[in-house]
Amino acid sequence: MGAAKQMLxxxxxxxxxxxxxxxxxxxxxxxxxxxxxxxxxxxxxxLLVMMDELMDEWGFPQKGLEQRSLIGRGKKRHNRQxxxxxxxxxxxxxxxxxxxxxKKGKLGTYIVQVSFRQNATWQGHVVCVNCNEKKDFTxxxxxxxxxxxxxxxxxxxxx
Length: 159
Hints:
This protein has helices at 44-58, 87-95, 140-158; strands at 13-22, 25-32, 39-41, 108-116, 123-128, 133-137. By secondary structure, it is of the alpha+beta class. Strands 3-2-1-4-5-6 form a 6-stranded antiparallel β-sheet, with helices on one face. It is globular and about 45 Å long. The relative contact order is 0.20. The mean pLDDT is 85.
């Protein structure tokens, strides 16, 4: 019997497709289930910033900490009423959903589900498609280390 394919199912899945590595930094695309078009990134930092911006846009998962502002122009925290709809529900109704788990990067593919954004970082799960392993991470840095380790394993297999 063949090995079962690891998969994640959530409303905030992000598929990271790594296409190249230049100057020890990643280039590739981010796919999410609410758009037909990918978002391109040129570095690991841009990857993390873009993912965080997507989660802010969706309002899901909610941040555990709000950004501080010294000027007083910062966003006011919005307390949802019971009948208020979450931003991600509105995005889903407006755009529908797409299957992103079939998109592949040239060097590596990682399906990410961020479950929480607490302690000024992320906690969640990642499926490394190349090796069909599901791993948990407790910070954005740990997610990057998982990707880096997996890409290192891909390089070793290629040699």
